[in-house]
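Structure first, sequence second, as always.
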């Protein structure tokens, strides 16, 4: 793909741009160049999208499960077929290596395939009652859904906002990130091309606070789904509360990794170092606080630094690149502040710590050790390519530190002890726990957190049921 795709809104099945609408630049984070301009929706555009979503919901909710499943399956096939081109756009606007971009897009297609199957598994139940009485529990789509997706996984996050809702029978309006718009447009266009009606799936852009306030002020929207920071999530939840809209919130994290002295240290290192620097650490479930039992701390520390220094950083379109740039200059500024504060507090900088070059937004893979708990980076999600390695005295202290923060999205543990695994599963406060693996996501498993990391789930059956409401029918 030699040119970047044209950008537009998708409202009621129509590609909307021009007309004197405000625009903003879309930047390539590897070069700093302007790729193109993105049009913003006007208030009239948003009102039109709301009217269309209301009509689309009435139509889509009565579309048979077989037909919905067929359309969504076809859309998944189109996304797979177009994955190469979509990945090119994704890498250029977001920065991650091309292989990661294609893998993400294929995962989005796989998730949609799963959701398509769920169309036919939206079961109710009948309760036991005396003869002559009957109670049936049915599940119905909640209504039009507004979804707000971030820039770090611009195809997958868009799919998570709309896939389950479409399977449930809801209409959707999604706002992908203005920094990575082409990826989201491509996902929505594939759904439209597969036969989802234009008033059932729509795509808008604009100043985020303006768009969210406009959509959430409308009684048409009955559910909000959001991925992003805890601060923004809290603000959106307040807006949604005014109309008692149902919410799914997938918010910030600060992933602890508990490494015990009975673990396979080399396996843990090979898995977690690549996991840490995936997408330049800009992952809500990124492993961040490595809590390492004292007996194996030095071996783990030295092995981590050795592997981090071998990570090849470069343009995501270049062959062999393992870590691309950060997605924007804000990330670089945040890294500088957090690393500087940690060093001032007494942390040891073992490798990295600085920006790479003066073109684009590249930052070196970074490792800090012996970081005190009052350092900002120990309490605020860094969302960048930095790992914190701290020695710990034993299991109780490790669990206590893992649970210290108000976040609880993903956590990781490495141990050979089956009894300890059961204790960790019961005691670590997280929506997802990976033991002796780096993966916390699967299309058929719920994805979500606890505490300040949000509530509700995406993916799995739960991602569809989150877009439905129960109704009890009592017959005498």
């Amino acid at each position: 793909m030699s040119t970047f795709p044209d950008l537009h809104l998708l409202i009621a099945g129509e590609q909307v741009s021009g007309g004197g609408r405000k625009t903003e630049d879309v930047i390539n984070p590897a070069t700093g160049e302007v790729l193109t301009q993105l049009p913003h929706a006007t208030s009239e555009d948003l009102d039109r999208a709301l009217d269309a979503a209301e009509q689309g919901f009435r139509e889509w909710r009565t579309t048979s499960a077989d037909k919905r499943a067929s359309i969504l399956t076809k859309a998944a096939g189109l996304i797979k077929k177009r994955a190469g081109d979509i990945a090119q756009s994704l890498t250029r606007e977001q920065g991650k290596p091309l292989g990661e971009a294609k893998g993400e897009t294929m995962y989005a297609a796989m998730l949609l395939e799963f959701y398509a199957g769920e169309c036919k598994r939206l079961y109710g139940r009948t309760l036991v009652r005396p003869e002559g009485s009957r109670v049936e529990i049915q599940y119905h789509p909640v209504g039009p859904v507004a979804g707000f997706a971030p820039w770090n996984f611009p195809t997958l996050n868009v799919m998570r906002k709309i896939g389950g809702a479409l399977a449930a029978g809801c209409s959707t309006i999604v706002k992908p990130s203005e920094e990575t718009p082409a990826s989201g447009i491509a996902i929505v266009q594939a759904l439209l091309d597969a036969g989802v009606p234009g008033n059932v799936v729509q795509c808008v852009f604009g100043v985020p606070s303006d768009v969210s306030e406009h959509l959430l002020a409308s009684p048409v929207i009955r559910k909000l789904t959001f991925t992003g920071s805890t601060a923004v999530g809290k603000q959106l939840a307040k807006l949604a509360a005014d109309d008692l809209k149902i919410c799914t919130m997938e918010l910030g994290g600060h992933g602890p990794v508990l490494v015990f002295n009975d673990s396979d240290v080399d396996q843990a290192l090979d898995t977690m170092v690549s996991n840490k620097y995936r997408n330049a650490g800009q992952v809500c479930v990124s492993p961040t606080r490595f809590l390492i039992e004292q007996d194996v701390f030095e071996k783990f520390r030295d092995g981590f630094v050795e592997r981090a220094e071998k990570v090849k950083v470069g343009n995501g379109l270049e062959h062999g690149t393992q870590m691309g740039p950060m997605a924007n200059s804000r990330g670089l500024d945040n890294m500088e502040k957090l690393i500087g504060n940690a060093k001032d507090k007494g942390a040891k900088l073992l490798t990295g710590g600085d920006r790479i070059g003066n073109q684009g937004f590249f930052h070196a893979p970074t490792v800090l050790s012996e970081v005190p708990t009052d350092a900002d980076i120990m309490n605020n999600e860094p969302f960048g390519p930095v790992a914190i390695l701290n020695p710990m005295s034993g299991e109780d202290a490790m669990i206590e530190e893992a649970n210290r923060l108000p976040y609880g999205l993903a956590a990781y543990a490495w141990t050979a002890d089956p009894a300890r695994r059961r204790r960790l599963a019961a005691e670590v406060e997280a929506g997802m726990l990976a033991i002796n693996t780096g993966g916390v996501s699967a299309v058929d498993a719920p994805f979500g957190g606890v505490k300040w990391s949000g509530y509700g789930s995406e993916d799995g059956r739960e991602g569809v049921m989150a877009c439905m409401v129960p109704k009890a029918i009592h017959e005498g």
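Margin note: The domain at 255-442 is CATH 3.40.309.10 (Aldehyde Dehydrogenase; Chain A, domain 2).
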